[in-house]
Amino acid sequence: MIKAIIFDMDGTMFDTERVFIHAWDYAGEKTGIGKAGHMVMKTLGASIRASRDVWRREYGERFHEDELRKYSKEFIIDYYLHHETPVKDGLYELIDYLKNENYLLGISTSSSRYEVDTHLRSAGLTDCFQAIADKDLVENSKPAPDLYIKACELLGVSPDYCFALEDSKNGILSARSAGCKTIMIPDLWQPDDEIKKLLFAQCDTLHDVIQVIEKNRKREDV
């Protein structure tokens, strides 16, 4: 029986991946490598360590991590000074439904706790989650299972009893490796046949996840 729902954050709860595209375009031009927003697609859901290797393969000696990080941070800070965190369609409705049905709610994210708190505060969702597993709590980020294992541990629920909501390949691999049942809501990346075989379900929006949970509850009640 499903007892908990664990959300990925970037690209699943919040439309932040597109903000990163603009940030890396800006940082790339500042550092002389040209617009680098396409790198978001190559590093979706990956840890900083894994992303660093992808950047090095792409740009070689032209990759200067400190400069890219400085300018992308500059862009992101300025963006969120003037904009609220963009919320994915159906997020509020899904969270209201889950709270009313007494599910435990968690977050599993490769982002920092500071970023999580910033986005939750902007979206008015600060008190909605019983557990937050961020990159600083584990040794290995996605696609390793550590973040989902930690989220389940903090919730006090076995992964077998958790739905994981994800938008990226690395996130799905992480959730499945941990033992969670995974629902994908594609954002920038569409699943290939390999990933589709790993999914419990695929939805167009977070609002559609409610139907998946309802159908699963009816099966559990039989």
**CATH-derived topology of the largest domain:** Rossmann fold
Query: Which structural class do you get from the secondary structure elements?
Result: alpha/beta
Q: What's the level 1 CATH class of the largest domain?
A: Alpha Beta
Q: Report the portion of residues in β strands.
A: 5-15%
Low-confidence runs: none
For the CA atoms, what is the radius of gyration? 17 Å
Compute the number of helices: 10
Question: What's the N-to-C terminus distance?
Answer: 12 Å
DSSP strand count:
6
In round numbers, the mean pLDDT is 94
Question: Could you say which overall geometry the principal axes of the C-alpha atoms support?
Answer: globular
* Spatial arrangement of strands, main beta sheet: 3-2-1-4-5-6
In a few lines, what is going on in this structure?
The chain has 222 residues and is α/β, with parallel strands linked by helices. Helices cover 50% and strands 10% of the residues. The chain folds into 2 domains: 146 residues, HAD superfamily/HAD-like (Rossmann fold); 66 residues.
Mind explaining what this structure looks like?
The protein is of the alpha/beta class. The chain has two domains: 4-14 and 87-221, 3-Layer(aba) Sandwich (Rossmann fold), CATH 3.40.50; 17-82. 50% of the residues lie in helices and 10% in strands. Strand 4, helix 8 (169-178) and strand 5 (181-184) form a beta-alpha-beta unit. Helix 1 packs across helix 4 and helix 5 (91-100) packs parallel to helix 10 (206-221). It starts with a strand and ends with a helix.
